[in-house]
Input
Amino acid sequence: MTRHVILRVKRANVASTQRDFDVPVPTVAGRVLDLLLYAREYLDPTLEFRYACRVGMCGSCAVTINGREALACESSVAELPAGAVLEVAPLAGLPVRRDLVVDLDPFLATFIHAEAGLKPRQPRLREVPVIPPGGAERALIERHNGCVTCGACTAATSRLLGAAGTLGPAALNRVLMLALDERDAKGHERLARVAGDAALAGHDTLGPIDELCPVGIPLSAGLRELRTRL
Amino acid sequence: MQRRACDILIVGGGGAALYAALRACDANPRLRILVASKGLLGKSGCTRMVQGGYNVVLDPADSFDKHYDDTLRGGALINDQELAWTLVTQAPDRIFELENAYGCYFDRNPNGTIHQRALAGQSFDRTVHRGDLTGIELMGRLCEQVLLREIEILNEVRGLELLFDRSRRAICGALLLDHHSGALVAVKAKAVLLATGGAAPLYRITAASLEKSGDGMAMAFRAGAEFADMEMMQFHPTGLRAGDSALTGTVLEEGLRGAGGHLLNACGERFMDRYDPARLERSTRDRVSRASFLEIRASRGSPEGAVFLDVRHLGKEFLLKSSPGMYRRCLSIGLDMATDLVPVTPTAHFQMGGIRIDTRCRTSLEGLFAAGEDAGGVHGANRLGGNGVAESMVFGAIAGDALAEHAAHAALSEPDPRRLEEIAARLERPRDGRGSACALRREIGSVAWEDLGIIRSAASLARAATALDAFEEKVDLLPIPGARGGNSVLEETLNIRNLIAVARMICRAAALREESRGSHYREDFSETSPGGLYNIFLRRDEDATIAADVRPVRFTRRRPEELALETVIPGASVEAVPGLSEKAP
Ligand SMILES: Cc1cc2nc3c(=O)[nH]c(=O)nc-3n(C[C@H](O)[C@H](O)[C@H](O)COP(=O)(O)OP(=O)(O)OC[C@H]3O[C@@H](n4cnc5c(N)ncnc54)[C@H](O)[C@@H]3O)c2cc1C
Ligand code: SF4
Ligand code: FES
Output
């Protein structure tokens, strides 16, 4: 027999701010995303949430699940007992557009403010430079690469520190990678821009964000590292 | 209706769209560039999901000729030879640009040179990658470069229809729908690019990102553009089968078969023995997909319709090293590849057919350009792994340059007001209709899967054609509740209409090709015919039917007799995948 659970969606835009959906748990491989899809198809076609790849690669589906930021497509519901309540809310610290959908522009703006993209030294070079992966810088870049810009860490930081005064760990993580990147021409200027960032000062309290990052980037260690480079 | 104007309108938010935006902007930073994407820019679409990597000739021991011949063999010799040559010869410059100008981090050999491996059908190790999650790298870097330029982004705003000028000859913009506000936006542009990806999600089981619905192709079809090779749709043999979960259909890397993985049916039999005894599981994607499909159809699959991928004998250590992302994905559904069989099914993966373009990404309509999966011809009857994302980068760049050039001497013109009214009127739909969009979508997916998919016949195609007629009627009756903003039912209805338009073209072309070639397999014509070296071109006729034109392949660079017809998966060796292995469980 199919087991049902309660999907409790915090809806910021509609009259009642919370709605419970009684949903079956898929027999294999159920994710929070599957519950949301079921609720929208069979119970409420107006329920809004984001997803695209469904395999943890696009970072579109980050929400707050039982108080913690996570990707809906990677959060298993296989262990939930019948009748359990699963509370899903939009990411903290960003304006809500509708239901679970937040306005990501302020998050993307942190990358623009940080100028978090390569400013190339040799944009027209017609070969692939030789860069041994074992070098100290490259090895560190490698550990910090792979961000899917899901916003989970930045939302958690605004929960833990308050949103003011920080670009958030995701943009700062990219700044660190670029500071280590021999192909980049803007290292110091970019570092100067982020020097006063609150997350750099408060990195000691940000340990919990490491566990939230769906791709396992050591974010708090990165903030510490970045601080030593200012 | 809101009105806007720009120089260049790019419809789509995947690899081809972003590349085009960057190149157009860099060609002339004063151009007003507008990018409208149905999903989030850089996050939606299949480029983001690329695993294996990007094919490119970099090693002096490799050559353009080898890559080219592999591509034509893979395409069963019906590729547009000029487009394929463009792909191969411009792929290196895009890798140099991705590395040096946009800052991608590609995996390196221990000595610091770029690492290249081989995917199926390659005669040389030429696939550049970052672990088994290359798409995140490409899209992350392209996206940040776009954010740092003067390029206007409309997120979650979809292209609805192309607009003609008053002469009804040239495309002069497009009508968009803003998902959140529900606003219709008529955009005037000097040049329009379609880069919305293909229609693999037409099928019940698909690997593609789920928001895609062949929108660019459907828009271009309704506008009268010419299409090539629409019978060609690629199925990947090892999609995960995970019950009702949305994970069903997602791809497990081909390398697992290359490395010696076995496929078993429900009786535990290694069934490739019967289909391709020489190459077994290392046979081509189309053959393995077909074999699995037939086993499942003959009730030799699992009750939910799967066969099994067995990689247990490869050992945990190897699996962790060679496919850490896949290992983790299986583990997350409670399957340890080192000790468990993994249920798999063929899954609709990539559409080779599409809008006909020339080597400057121009379509048959003035002012309209297409690049990436929307375009047809590059891959012929089958695409090699690693050539898809190369196509998006190479032709995205060409399109960007061509759009900038076109915009330099084209003028803005007013859209034909009659057409605008027509389109707007069609969106006003019955609120008290019949049926459910989700249910209809599922029905279409099943018909496509059974009758338009891996195995076709005159009978199945006739069934599909009749079913598509019926679906067309049903879609017009679907009720659309509520306001236009944030309306998932309205979106799905629009998706369905577009999928039907694409499915009709697939059906028509598949019926015309009375032979089997590449990804197109006819049960009633199971051989590859020597007379099959032609392409099928389709376009919409005056009376909304489909006109077909069959033209022989133009062998401008290679004669068929110069190329033997075989491609095989290379055997993989245990090799460290730098970086990712550290993060594996
Ligand atoms: C799981 C998977 C793995 C793959 N691995 C590889 C690989 O290893 N190597 C390789 O070469 N190829 C691979 N491919 C194929 C490759 O992904 C495609 O060839 C390529 O990404 C297509 O790029 P594109 O830019 O044309 O479209 P996409 O990247 O699919 O982008 C389409 C974009 O258009 C948007 N869109 C859709 N409709 C509309 C509309 N109406 N209006 C506005 N925007 C719209 C979408 O939201 C999306 O942003 C893989 C494909 C899949 C599914
Ligand atoms: S660093 Fe991790 S948690 Fe933060 S946005 Fe990137 S992927 Fe998400
Ligand atoms: S849907 Fe892409 S990360 Fe979840």
Observations:
- Chain A is about 35% helix and 15% strand.
- The mean pLDDT of chain A is 92.
- Chain A touches chain B through 70 residues (CB under 8 Å).
- The CA atoms of residues 11 and 184 of chain A lie 43 Å apart.
